[in-house]
Amino acid sequence: MSVGRKTKREKRSIGLGWRIVIGLIVGIILGVIFFKNKTAITAMQNIGTMFIGLIQMIVLPIVISSLTVGIAKMGDIRKLGRVGLKTLIYFEVLSTIAIILGMIAGNVFEPGANVNVHNLQATNISNYLSTAKSASDGGIWATIMDIVPTNFFASLSESNMLQVILFSVFFGLGTAAIGQKGQVIIDLFDAVAEVMFKVTNWVMQLAPIGVGALIGATVAQMGLKSLESLGYFIFVSYLTMIFFMVVILGIVLKIYNVRVFTLFKVLRDEIILAFTTASSEATLPRIVSKMEKFGVSQGIVSFVVPTGYTFNLDGSAIYQAIGALFMAQAYNIHLSLVQQLTLLVVLMITSKGMAGVPGASFVVLLATVSSIGVPPSGLAFIAGVDRLIDMGRTAVNVVGNSTASIVIGKSEKDFDEEKNMKYLASFND
Q: What digits encode the pLDDT tens for the residues 93-102?
């Protein structure tokens, strides 16, 4: 009887997604009330930063434990190589489609055609300029070489995801290679993963507070009037992102007999969280957990999702394409078909060459616009609303990487249909 009463109470309680939405609304109200109030902005920023810090604390232990166990259970280096190659090809194809879609939207809607850059408010982007210069100097080879860790513990302290993934893959393969002796490691890391997922559930109870603080600080700093001059640019960016999720990812999922709106329903809380925090790391632990419950094998989820947060940023790709064309139009620079094809190639290279760079989306734009004649300083005019668009592109990245894990899992016939049906049934109870 007590179990039944508990279930009824749970059904009456407000779900996490709705609590996050409430936190979002309260945060916007606080942002309007405390507009330009430095004390309130600092307080809200600090609260939001502490919440993101708690999430970041969880991410690497979950990636290491889940990926090590998943690879150890997979045990086949040839299968791992096939999965890795298939994953990277999928990422490249989808990212390129996202860039092309962004360029089409930029040409059709022309968000910068009626914008006078002299009427826009500039934002200080000196920190992005220095980051873009150092990233450009290294190029794509520096990124490839940086994947190999020389000191695993240094990689952990620097939160270098690609290095951590590579080490965990080798550690998992080594664990599988020693046979029964490695079972103790599998059991240990399995337990670590369960503990960290439990901690994730606890931390997520603070999400409404963290979300409210982060969005409140953003509104208080920018104000709602800052949206007027760049409102159309923001609208076109969001419209394109929604089209990509519903239509492009919808078609991809349909090929594998999954409805995109079913995935939206499953990821509802994570999409809201990604949107409000503009942080991919905030959702990574829950995405790994949910995609396993959705039916994708642990090894594939643990490899595809963290790797995707570096190489499969579809929302960022859309923003970079639209942003580049927006600035060209704002400066009255006409781009020929050849120049636009050049822009496409440059975006494809720079977006991969700067994977993992802080503020990568904006840094890629800085490294790209010079190729079409736009002064890098011109991006100071859209830097002020970058946070608002970042919220949307982060949500797209979450859906995109979840889709990738499903596609790779199904293509490898490493997807548990029965588990999937039971999990989806729980959403209808």
A: 999 999 999 9
Taking only the tens place, the pLDDT of each residue in 354-392 is 554 545 666 777 777 777 777 777 777 777 777 788 889
Residue 2 forms part of a structural domain: no
In a domain, 132, yes or no: yes
The reply to whether the predicted model has a pTM over 0.85 is no
CATH number at residue 257: 1.10.3860.10
Residue 4 falls inside a structural domain: no
Cβ contact 64:302 at 8 Å: no
Domain enclosing residue 369, as ranges: 14-428
In a domain, 5, yes or no: no
> pLDDT tier at 404 (50, 70, 90 boundaries)?
very high
Number of domains, the chain: 1
